[in-house]
Amino acid sequence: MHKSPAIDELPAGAVTPDDLVSWELEFNCAVERIGLIFSRPEPRMHAEHYLRGLLAPLERKNGWTIAEFCGQHEPKAIQRFLNLTDWDAGKLRDVNLAYARENFADSRGTLIADPTGFAKKGRKSAGVQRQYSGTLGRIDNCQIGTFLAYADSAGNRVLVDRELYIPRESWLGDPQRCREAGIPVEATFATRPQQVRTMIERVVAAGLPFAWVTADEEFGQNPGLREFLEDADMPYVMAIPKSTVVTGADGSRKAIAETPSGLRENDWQRRACGIGTKGFRVYDWTLIATPAPDFQYMIRRSVDNGELAYYICFNPRRESFGEIVRVAGSRWPVEECFEAAKNEAGLDNYQVRLYHAWYRHITLSMLALTFLAVIRADSKKGTRDLWTTSGD
After folding, report:
1. Residue 251 belongs to what domain range?
2. How far apart are the C-alpha atoms of 222 and 48, rounded to whole Å?
3. Separation of alpha carbons 307 and 254, rounded Å
4. pLDDT digits over 47-69, tens only?
């Protein structure tokens, strides 16, 4: 008769029976958190089944595969749960945010704003149109979700909020199309920077502490978002386009792309801004002073090919050069969140068209990702890692 190996005989990183017990207990705690959202036992059961399906080792995680995984012969019950059952995805978002706060709250934490695209066929899914997606790397028929991620100083990262971008003309200008997709009549147009502002306000109201906000060029070049952060005294390091006109310490104005030509080699410092699967992410960096002491510009230069990237920094606490570099590198965790959420929690596997069903699936996927982050943090005591980080 085969004898199971003793715990101390298992290879490094192997899952032990104790791990399975611990993970099941944590999963049950996550299910208890969301139980109060549902007034009846049937939707509570469907929520648990859906969450288990999102965490299961399924190649695709949609209504059909999750229903089959849960022992159902057809996906009608799951589809009804996403599309027709009366429950509030906003409350689920708040549960996920509280779950993240209780496990990863860090006064040195960073909020990271980033959009991601979901390729779609047809024109009936809420918000879908031909539009540019950085995720897809092209203009394509897709939905765009705007997300807010949170990274603590220990390397944990989770998605804490989300908004579906609804284009103004092709959607909000067509009430019949909106009605068919379940978009509320009270919905108003919001740019993605405006969506980020709303999400940051919710994070602040929920009491999740953070020291910095970071984002890519789309948000860094938006004066409304920057002014909101500055007025709220929220430090930021955000990417900006090379065409951005900047004011130097001497008062001169020019495109930031013209700045490197006037720098000497000893103006650059080589520093790591994080670590990926290929090792430390090392670049050359330089800070550019401005007439306003709370603001700086920063330039990053690739060690391999000299490619440049540009940043605007609101630094009222006068944090160190090394800290600003670290924050600039904190943008990568949101990409790691997207990769993990899509690979491990079915973020992009949904087959729903309705506006509120999108929020339900996406938020359940975010909760599954937070659960994985919690047990991943526990596993750091050993040698396991429950997701792999992306490369550069």
Report:
1. 236-330
2. 40
3. 20
4. 999 999 999 999 889 888 999 99
Task: Please check whether residue 257 lies inside any domain of the structure.
Answer: yes
Average pLDDT over residues 337-364: 95
Q: Residue 310: which of 254, 253, 238, 252 has the closest Cα? A: 238
Which of 99, 102, 95, 134 lies closest to 215 in space, CA to CA? 134
Residue percentage of the chain with pLDDT more than 90: 78
Cα→Cα distances 93→3, 77, 121, 365, 382, Å: 45, 22, 27, 11, 31
The answer on 322 and 257 residing in a single domain is yes
- Token representation of residue 378: 């526990």
**What tokens does 310 get?**
């540009």
Residues 103 and 185 in one domain: yes
Angle between helices 76-83 and 355-379 (to 10 degrees): 100
Domain annotation covers residue 230: no
What domain count does the chain have?
Answer: 2
> Cβ(262)–Cβ(232) under 8 Å?
no
276 is a domain residue? yes
Predicted confidence band of residue 13 (pLDDT cuts 50, 70, 90): low
Which pTM value belongs to this model? 0.91
- What's the residue count for the chain? 392
State the pLDDT confidence band at 152, using cuts at 50, 70 and 90. very high
* Closest to 375 (Cα-Cα) out of 21, 112, 66: 21
Q: What is the pLDDT of residues 64-102, one digit of tens each?
A: 899 999 888 889 999 999 999 999 999 999 999 999 999
What's the whole-number mean pLDDT along residues 14-35? 86
More confident position, 310 or 12: 310
Q: Please report, for residues 81, 82, 84, 351, the alpha-carbon distance to residue 71 in angstroms, rounded to integers and kept in the order given.
A: 16, 18, 21, 19
Residue 170 main-chain phi, psi, to 5 deg: -75, -20
